[in-house]
């Protein structure tokens, strides 16, 4: 992605030089990876389960607070994130204005180890997520190395851009009232039916990420879309369950299959039309 020398957002809170305020997973292991994958890309289920799994580590999770200077690589990644967030701000402000609405810009928090949020404490094992309570996106960039080394994603800077755009998609859903409506619809539903609504929410966030990429094409490099699709493929529920437990349980899906995640990102990218993110009508 072409990003050097471009506008950077002022809405990034970089807390990486002071880690702490949440439970840092010491050693991680299989449970840490499960927490990360359950919670990946904003899933509420993972945030509910994460504290229980951390307790199962038998004291391996502990409060930490350390201060350390950022490396040049850390600083460069921070600048990249600021550019990606700025692109999202510009594009979504324009789209909202065209539809007679005002876009409220979210904050993006970079952290290492652990962080306190309006949705509670979170560790790096939680993966990137959006907290509607404070309307902030939280990311530990170490997640992307896990995604590449353990789950076969290609990596690359646009994989990070895709995840940021996905989390901003959850912010869009909060602003439009979609998330609140989905939670209301989940009340009284069976677990399988409630999970289908969660899948629709996540796939719509993938669609919105594609819409953002559609309007950002002038800044894309060859291979960027493939990087995003590779990341989407790696975090499909079927891919994760197959790798972690050797079989899949479709009724337990909360984020969608690899095929679905790639399909909805590509649909957003090809159309650029927010009205075509009809996941709730199609995922029933």
UniProtKB/TrEMBL annotation:
<keyword id="KW-0812">Transmembrane</keyword>
<keyword id="KW-0472">Membrane</keyword>
<dbReference type="InterPro" id="IPR007343">
    <property type="entry name" value="Uncharacterised_pept_Zn_put"/>
</dbReference>
<keyword id="KW-1133">Transmembrane helix</keyword>
<dbReference type="Pfam" id="PF04228">
    <property type="entry name" value="Zn_peptidase"/>
</dbReference>
<protein>
    <submittedName>
        <fullName>Neutral zinc metallopeptidase</fullName>
    </submittedName>
</protein>
<feature type="transmembrane region" description="Helical">
    <location>
        <begin position="21"/>
        <end position="41"/>
    </location>
</feature>
């Amino acid at each position: 992605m072409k990003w050097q020398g471009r506008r950077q957002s002022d809405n990034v809170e970089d807390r990486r030089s002071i880690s702490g305020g949440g439970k840092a997973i010491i050693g991680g292991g299989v449970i840490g990876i499960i927490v990360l994958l359950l919670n990946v890309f904003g899933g509420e289920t993972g945030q509910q389960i994460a504290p229980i799994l951390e307790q199962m580590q038998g004291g391996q999770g502990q409060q930490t607070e350390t201060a350390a200077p950022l490396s040049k690589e850390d600083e460069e990644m921070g600048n990249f994130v600021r550019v990606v967030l700025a692109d999202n701000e510009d594009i979504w402000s324009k789209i909202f204005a065209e539809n007679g609405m005002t876009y409220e810009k979210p904050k993006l928090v970079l952290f290492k180890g652990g962080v306190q949020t309006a949705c509670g404490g979170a560790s790096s094992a939680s993966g990137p997520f959006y907290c509607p309570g404070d309307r902030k996106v939280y990311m530990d960039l170490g997640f992307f190395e896990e995604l590449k080394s353990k789950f076969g994603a290609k990596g690359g800077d646009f994989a990070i851009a895709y995840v940021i755009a996905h989390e901003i998609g959850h912010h869009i859903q909060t602003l439009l009232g979609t998330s609140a409506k989905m939670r209301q619809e989940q009340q009284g539903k069976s677990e399988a039916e409630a999970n289908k609504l969660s899948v629709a929410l996540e796939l719509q966030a993938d669609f919105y990420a594609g819409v953002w990429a559609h309007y950002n094409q002038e800044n894309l490099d060859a291979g960027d879309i493939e990087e995003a699709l590779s990341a989407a493929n790696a975090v499909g529920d079927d891919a994760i369950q197959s790798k972690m437990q050797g079989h899949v349980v479709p009724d337990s899906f909360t984020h969608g299959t690899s095929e679905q995640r790639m399909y909805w990102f590509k649909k957003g990218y090809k159309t650029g039309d927010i009205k075509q993110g009809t996941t709730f009508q199609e995922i029933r």
